[in-house]
Structure formats: structure tokens, C-alpha cells
């Protein structure tokens, strides 16, 4: 790790212990986070990421994050970065130590982008569909399930990714109990049919993707039709092309779905990535 800045703006040597062992973020995964892509010192979609941090914190009933403090903290990471042109900037906001005074723990880290992600941007990924185990109908009825919050409890998402790797794939597309398509463990799903882009709605208990949002903005300007609506598994399989979108992976092509090779859509990948880049 290269840069660590606490929410109060203190720049800390990344090797220094700064978090208590009884922090509820560690002992219960009780907190929220964001990962932002920074290119040439400029954070992408900072406003939408901070908005999502606010929404996630509200769902967990955490104290509202202070926007000026976070903006200051993010700026300090940018100012102290000595790594490559791209950086993954992670913001962590937990409920703080158990039996503490209720003050959340907050910090931001600047990290290099992992090799696996960089390779996948070029080569694409093999994805498998996996059950996520809930019906979208539960989302509004059981807000304590925190569906759609970017909470620190990502163990399930990581386990799903490991399962994909154990069967020779590298990505997962989660499917709800009613057969509708959800999202990846760390990405949004984008389908292409002709000149129409589709993604699945946050009302199904998934994250509103900032990368998908940027892509759709640019695509609409370029004359594409965009749709945010429920997608069935059959529609996923019949799409002209599939992509996984997230801040660090950008718009990564799915070349194989459940073991079936998809049509070569390298040109489309380049077109969509160019549209996405045109936002910055
Ligand atoms: C579950 C999930 N869905 C979607 C996304 C994509 O969001 P964004 O494009 O804002 O990075 C992420 C990002 O990590 C995620 O964890």
C-alpha cells in the first residue's frame, strides 16, 4: 500500500497500526466503503461515489459522513500519491470501536490497480451465473438485509468469486431467486443489443454503478438507447454482448458465459471504453 490518510486529514505511514482490534468494521464487517478510480491525479465520479457512501451509511444507520472531511481526506491521498498514473482510492467508514463513544473510524487508502484487473481489461473474463439467494421482492420488506448498501461485509461476494475461480472462470453474475439478473460481486452487468445498452435496476437490491452511469451518459449523447430495467437469465444469454463495469475494471468484456464462448466483440469493447473515457 502506498498512501494512508485518516478522516481527520492525518497522513500516516501505511505500516503504522491505526485501527483498534475491537473496531466493529473488523469484528462484524459493520461499516461501508467506496473504491474510486483516479487517473492522472483526477478522481472519477467522486460526487456519485460520495453520494453512494452517504446512502450506504444511512442504510446502516451510521452517522452521516462529513462531505468536507471526506473531500479533504481524498485530496490528501491525491497529493501524497507517488505511484503510477492510475490509482484505486478506497474510502473506509466503520462504526468504530465496540464500547467506544460512537465516533466512526474513517480513512482512505491509495493503492495500485491489481494485475488481475489490468489483464482482464484487455483479455475479457469468463463469467458464471450463480444464485444470490434472495427474491428482489424482499428488498423493500427487509431493509435490515442491507441489500444495495456497499457494506464492508463482502465475504459472500469474495466467496462467490473464489467459487468461480475454482471452476475455471473469473467472474460471477448473480441471479435472484425469481430468475432475474442482479450484478457481479464487485461490478455492474451491462448487456448490449444492437445500439441499446441495458443494466439492472438498483430496486432489485444491487448497487447503482457509477461506471455504468458514466457509460450510459456518454452512450446517450452518442445516440445509443439506454435502459435500466429488470433482465431475465434468458435475456442475458441472448444478448449480443455482455460487459462487467466497475471503477477499477472500467468496461470489461465477458467472453465466456457459463462455459459457452460468446461472439467476439472486441470492436464493441473498444467503442464502449472510448465512450466511457470521453466522459473525462
Ligand atoms: C456489488 C457491486 N456492484 C457494482 C459495482 C460497480 O460500481 P462502480 O462502477 O461504482 O465501481 C461494485 C463496485 O465495486 C460492486 O461492489
TrEMBL record:
GO annotations of cellular component type: cytosol
The Gene Ontology biological process terms listed for this entry are: carboxylic acid biosynthetic process
- Keywords (A to Z) from UniProt: Lyase
**Listed GO MF terms:** lyase activity
Q: Does the keyword Ion transport apply?
A: no
Concerning NCBIfam families, the annotation shows: PRK07849.1-1 (NF005886), PRK07849.1-2 (NF005887)
Question: Which family does the UniProt entry place this protein in?
Answer: Belongs to the class-IV pyridoxal-phosphate-dependent aminotransferase family.
Q: What is this protein called?
A: 4-amino-4-deoxychorismate lyase
Phylogenetic lineage: Bacteria, Bacillati, Actinomycetota, Actinomycetes, Pseudonocardiales
Amino acid at each position: 500500500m502506498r498512501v494512508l490518510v485518516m478522516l481527520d486529514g492525518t497522513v500516516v505511514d501505511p505500516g503504522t497500526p491505526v485501527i483498534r482490534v475491537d473496531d466493529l468494521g473488523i469484528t462484524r464487517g459493520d461499516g461501508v466503503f467506496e473504491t474510486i478510480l483516479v487517473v492522472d491525479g483526477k478522481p472519477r465520479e467522486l460526487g456519485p461515489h460520495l453520494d453512494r457512501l452517504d446512502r450506504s451509511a444511512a442504510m446502516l444507520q451510521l452517522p452521516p459522513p462529513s462531505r468536507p472531511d471526506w473531500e479533504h481526506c481524498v485530496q490528501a491521498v491525491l497529493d501524497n500519491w507517488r505511484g503510477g498514473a492510475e490509482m484505486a482510492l478506497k474510502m473506509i467508514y466503520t462504526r468504530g470501536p465496540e464500547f467506544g463513544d460512537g465516533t466512526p473510524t474513517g480513512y482512505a487508502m491509495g493503492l495500485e490497480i491489481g494485475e488481475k484487473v489490468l489483464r482482464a481489461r484487455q483479455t475479457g473474463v469468463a463469467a458464471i451465473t450463480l444464485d444470490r439467494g434472495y427474491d428482489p421482492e424482499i428488498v423493500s420488506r427487509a431493509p435490515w438485509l442491507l441489500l444495495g448498501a456497499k457494506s464492508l461485509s463482502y465475504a459472500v461476494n469474495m466467496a462467490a468469486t473464489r467459487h468461480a475461480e475454482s471452476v475455471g472462470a473469473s467472474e460471477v453474475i448473480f441471479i435472484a431467486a425469481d430468475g432475474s439478473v442482479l450484478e457481479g460481486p464487485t461490478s455492474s452487468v451491462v448487456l448490449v443489443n444492437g445500439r441499446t445498452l441495458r443494466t439492472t435496476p438498483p430496486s432489485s437490491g444491487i448497487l447503482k454503478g457509477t461506471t455504468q452511469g458514466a457509460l450510459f451518459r456518454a452512450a446517450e449523447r452518442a445516440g445509443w438507447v439506454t435502459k435500466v430495467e429488470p433482465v431475465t437469465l434468458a435475456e442475458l444469454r441472448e444478448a449480443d454482448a455482455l460487459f462487467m463495469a466497475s471503477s477499477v475494471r472500467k468496461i470489461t468484456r465477458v467472453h465466456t458465459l457459463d462455459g459457452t464462448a460468446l461472439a467476439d466483440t472486441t470492436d464493441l469493447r473498444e467503442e464502449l471504453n472510448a465512450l466511457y473515457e470521453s466522459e473525462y
